[in-house]
Amino acid sequence: MTLRNVLLVDDEKRMLDLLSLYLKPHNYTCQQARGAYEALDYLDQKSFDIVLLDIMMPDMDGWELCQEIRAVSDVPIIMVTARDQKEDVVKGLRLGADDYIAKPINEEELLARMEALLRRNMSANRVEVRGLVWDENRYELTYQSKPIKLTPKEFMMLGYFLQHPNQVFSRERLIELIWGFDSNTEGRTVDSHVRNMRDKIKQAGFPIEQHLQTVWGVGYKWTNKS
Question: What is the pLDDT of residues 117-147, one digit of tens each?
Fold first, then answer.
């Protein structure tokens, strides 16, 4: 059975260890983060299938971290917290969380909620166009079953294009989505990433120039029409 990568975010080591104890026997590999900034570092380095996120943390609370994650990723997020008031649940969901579970945690309920989210996410995170397959769950891009190696930011950028065909992404919007709102990244960096991504996909044999189009003076868009 395939192992799923889960990021656990909580400032309490005891809770992180308890969640790991619950999940490891059920084919989850657990990465523990003792706070929001550590979690963001891990998310920048690797791909996760799901995030379990506590709200009450000292450096940055879970609501703010949820927004930070949503700015760059569609990874499923479950809020795991002692705060189970209705207004807190609504706030978390509006800020981008996918589900909510209250402490003390019922192991079977947690596993059921995680499995349900992963099932829904599985189909949404795979796009195929003329033999080119972008699969976020496997974190791989293939053309006619042959792998194409992209950098993490190239992979993320291609995902936005493929999941939103015919939508024009300005350079400024791509910077916000991929590098973050407070980034000093310039438009030339976006152009460089697009150029490198095009070259890699073209070398694999896919007719990328027919699909990834430059909208002059604005940015880029993906079209499925050849």
Answer: 888 776 667 888 889 989 887 789 999 889 9
Report helix angle 62-70 to 86-94, nearest 10: 20
CA distance linking residue 10 with residue 213, whole number of Å: 42
The enclosing domain of 161 has a CATH number of 1.10.10.10
180-183 long-range contacts, CB within 8 A, separation 24+: 180/68, 180/71, 180/72, 181/71
* pLDDT tens by residue, 10-49: 999 999 999 999 999 999 999 999 999 999 999 888 778 8
Burial of 111 (0-12, 13-18, 19+ CB in 10 A): middle
CATH number of the domain at 87, please. 3.40.50.2300
Distances in Å between the alpha carbon of 40 and those of 46, 51, 68, 71? 10, 11, 8, 12
Unique residue bearing structure tokens 């795979």: 126
Both tokens of 204, joined, read: 């694999």
Q: Is residue 105 classed exposed, middle or buried when 0-12, 13-18 and 19+ CB atoms within 10 A define those classes?
A: middle
DSSP string, 158-187: HHHHHHSTT--EEHHHHHHHHT-TT----H
User: 70 lies in which domain range?
Assistant: 4-124
8 Å CB contact between 98 and 117 = yes
CB 212 within 8 A of CB 225: no
This prediction's pTM: 0.58
Same domain, 139 and 200: yes
